[in-house]
Write a structure and sequence with these properties.
Oligomer: single chain
Helix content: over 70%
Largest sheet: none
Structural class: mainly alpha
Distance between the termini: 37 Å
Number of strands: 0
Number of helices: 11
Order of helices and strands: HHHHHHHHHHH
């Protein structure tokens, strides 16, 4: 009887492992296919000019996406700068002050809704709240829309990482007479820092490829600009506009930009995973 039970468990375990491997291979296959397709279609535009020249005017051959890369970097980083402090503070409140209160459940529910909300809805919200009041598109409005997308990711990650810190650490610190704010900043944040940083990186990877909210907020700019109150070029919108154009040169630039953007998201995601893996090894 024991041998039969052991055999059943071994068979089930083998089947589960095979299915897990097949699922992993299935996901990696599509990822490699996307990377290969974007590389093949945009390889003619993957030259130093892509990173050193501005987006070309209609009908002109050559050019690059320097202003678009700069605009995406500025708005994505500004979105992270705006969203991270609010997200970390909100996640801290949920974990340390509202964990056992009904308001905590309500905030988590609303945050989950915001986490799954379509980005175009957030873009329209910022368009109504900022763009219409300013009277024109701007990089600042684009950064605000990206911050709203990153915010729930940071809130969820901070909340979960702080709740994973053993309660004994809180009790030990409080028993020494340390104020709670010092316990949070000097004990809990240090323990949860790798997880919080991982959440911030994942939020950066998500917002770097958003197109819909930027269409309603930052729009585009063919020229180089550092003015946050003016429209600013960005990679997702340039890819969208170039892909819809009738020019072959623009199509190649769109594929090249898509490849660089996909590669960036992949690298950031791998860095986030590496931080998590390193933290687990450290605790083990």
């Amino acid at each position: 009887m024991t041998n039969i039970l052991y055999l059943r468990r071994a068979v089930k375990n083998a089947i589960a492992q095979i299915l897990a491997v097949l699922a992993a291979v299935f996901g990696i296959f599509w990822l490699l296919w996307i990377l290969w397709t974007t590389l093949k279609m945009g390889i003619t535009a993957l030259t130093p000019a892509l990173f050193t020249q501005m987006t070309p005017p209609p009908g002109e051959e050559g050019g690059g996406m320097l202003n678009a890369f700069f605009g995406s970097a500025v708005m994505s980083l500004l979105g992270i700068v705006l969203g991270t402090p609010i997200g970390v503070l909100a996640g801290t409140y949920l974990s340390e002050y509202a964990d056992r209160h009904w308001i905590g459940g309500v905030i988590r529910f609303v945050n989950d809704i915001l986490l799954s909300a379509p980005s175009i809805v957030l873009g329209l919200f910022v368009y109504t709240l900022v763009v219409m009041r300013m009277g024109h598109f701007s990089a600042l409005a684009g950064a605000i829309s990206l911050a709203l997308i990153a915010l729930p990711v940071v809130v969820r990650t901070t909340d979960e990482m702080l709740r994973l810190v053993p309660r004994q650490m809180r009790e030990a610190a409080l028993s020494l007479g340390i104020p709670q704010w010092k316990v949070i900043t000097q004990v809990l944040y240090r323990s949860a820092l790798p997880g919080i940083v991982t959440g911030i990186l994942l939020a950066l990877a998500r917002i770097s490829g958003e197109t819909a909210p930027l269409l309603f907020t930052a729009l585009n700019n063919q020229y180089w600009t550092t003015d946050l109150l003016a429209p600013m070029a960005n990679v997702p919108v340039v890819i969208f506009q170039f892909a819809m154009s009738p020019y072959d040169g623009w199509h190649a630039l769109a594929w090249a930009g898509a490849f660089v953007l996909t590669l960036f998201v992949l690298v950031v995601s791998l860095i986030a995973r590496a931080i998590v893996a390193r933290n687990r090894m450290h605790h083990d």
